Amino acid sequence: MYDFEYRRPITLTAAEESFSKEFEPRWLGGGHTLIPSLKQRLLAPGTLIDVRFIPELQGIACDQGYVRVGAASRHAEVAASGQVAEFIPALAQLVRGIGDAQVRNMGTLGGSLANADPAADYPAAVLACKAVLHTQYRQIAADDFFKGMFETALQPGEILTRVDFQIPSRAGYIKFPNPASGYVMVGAFVACFEAEVRVAINGAGPCVFRWQEAEQALVSEFSIDRLEGLTLPVANLNADLHASADYRAALAPVLLRRAVEQAMSRG
Amino acid sequence: MPVINLKINGQEVTRKVESRRLLVQLLRDELQLTGTHVGCDTSQCGCCTVHLDGAPVKSCTVLAVMADGCSVTTIEGVSAPAASGELVLHPVQEAFRSCHALQCGFCTPGMVMRAIDICKQHPNADEATIRHELDGNLCRCTGYLNIVQAIKVAAQVTPETGAALESQGN
Question: Do A105 and B57 touch (CB under 8 A)?
Answer without folding.
Answer: yes
